[in-house]
## 1
Amino acid sequence: MLAPELTHGVLRGKGLLDPRTGLPGRELLIDRLGLALTRVKTHGTLVSLVLVPGDAETAVLLRETMREDHTVARYEPDLVAIVAEHPNGDARPIVERVRTVTTARTGWYTSDGTARVHEVLFRAEASLI
């Protein structure tokens, strides 16, 4: 897990931030998803990973639209990921916010913390198909 005190500049220098948007890249997304899975398992809450096809502009608009405590990242050059912790339910409220920015299809997976990072990524990707 990455040290929380790493600065934005250090993260960019290490290649953890997307150079076009300044948002977390794939590696930082995986780290944050892992931390979220640990937290929700400990606290008895849920985490959803929402995937949205989109370019750099869509990613920036989604960052502006989502809550501050949600991680918005460039998972792939044409795929934006959102990690959101919540007390119950599923990703529908997050998807509703996404719809204010884009009509692109979305995929998501919600976990209680028992799934591993790569399982969450796989299931969210599979739901896009």
## 2
Amino acid sequence: MTDTIKVAHIIESLGRGGAERVLVTNLAHIDQRRFENHVIYLFDGEDFLPDLEALGIQSYSLGMRDFYDWRGFWRLRRTLKTIAPDIVHTVLQKADIYGRVAAASAGLRPILSTLHECPYNPEVFIDNPALNRFKYGVFKRLDRSSARWCSDGFLVASKNTQNTLRQYFGVNDSRVRLLYNSIDLDRFDGGGEAEVDRIKRELGITKDDVVLLNIARLAPQKGQRYLIQAMVDVCRALPNAKLIIRGEGPLRSDLNALVHSLGLEGKVLVPNQYGSPEEVIALLRLCDLFVFPSLYEGFGVVLAEAMALGKPCIASNTGPIPEVVQDGGSGVLVEPMDPGALARAILGLVADPAAMRAMGRAGRKIVEQTFDILQTVKQLEAIYEEFAVRAAEH
């Protein structure tokens, strides 16, 4: 196919999240001569907007207040008809629902949806009393119905998500393409010492400290409270251990209260700064061990980022995480919600520096072979061409 393929990407926001970062990374590497990209976002959150502007990609804000701002549907439909894309590609649940229905009602095909995770695992209710079960049920029915009747294809970020897509949506595998999330390895090679030194100085990190790091949204799903509880045993056996938890979210005050109640002030740090891409990479550089205790997960792009920097990882044995972190190879997997298992894994690795170095090397190799953007963007381009050709033939 020689003509330029016009793609309209619909996402919930351009805030600093994993799915948003993957989208921008893909767009930074896709062949701009063959693909004309437009990005539509439903809600506020524009951290990645400068990145799109630097790439010369047109973006459209719908300015929706929330999911129930139905005027956004008509704005989205008009915007899609103005763009007149060859492919509509939706990302994240609310954007999936709106995007599929708006595109289908406007007669635009094919419609693709990327699923970084299936949000209907039973684990979503764990430690999450604020979750509105009625709204959850409405989302589930709308998502499943729009997926079955509107979407022509699905891109899944893991084999685990493909399995749950089949289970919860009843989608045939012939409509599904596996496309692992990926990272730009160039961002993780060389430099950054000044940022590392500055953050160490500001946080009071010394050369003798063993630094553990968690980067994730501060939310029940991410399991940080179990990691904080594990630090009681870790600090008892390893007084020079420090844990940095970097993220934004509703649990900041709760996590800080837990740190205080366990007497871990100065040992567990939950800073509200260091959110820029350069600072996140600096945090990954300065840590000795990356810990990711999620209760459930879609992929965990930050795991691949830690591995790109040669950091051994301790992560939950749940969802697609075993597809990213090889237990005993690039890290150690533990069962979710088990502070004791986390503490034992941390102390076991710290006591074996040779194993940590070997895991770091193995992790870097895995990222180079499986999660390098230069490989996955070629797969994405082939998927777009496949569905565009198929649509042109009908």
